[in-house]
Design a protein that fits this description.
Elements: E1 4-8, H1 18-22, E2 28-30, E3 43-45, H2 56-60, E4 66-70
Antiparallel strand pairs: 1-4, 2-3
Length: 77
């Protein structure tokens, strides 16, 4: 069950791949056929349903291109 999702600013991402190694769920990868305006492949989350909102990717990103949106559960579910 997802606790959040990674929102990645494609234009700020410089393709350093630090976030990919930092993700404990291994749900981030570099885009294969898409590039930002700088011509760089960017990080993408390919399985948001497994995101634990741990923020490891956002913390390690040197360009602050990732922010975590935490999901709120109603009734303690």
């Amino acid at each position: 069950m997802s606790r959040g999702r990674a929102e990645i600013d494609r234009e700020r991402c410089k393709g350093c791949t630090l976030c990919i190694g930092a993700c404990p769920e291994k749900i981030l990868a570099m885009s294969r056929d898409s590039f930002n305006r700088q011509g760089v492949p960017y990080a993408e989350c390919f399985d948001e349903s497994r995101c634990t909102a741990c923020m490891s990717c956002a913390i390690i990103c040197p360009d602050m291109a990732i922010r975590i949106i935490r999901l709120v559960t109603i009734g303690g579910e």
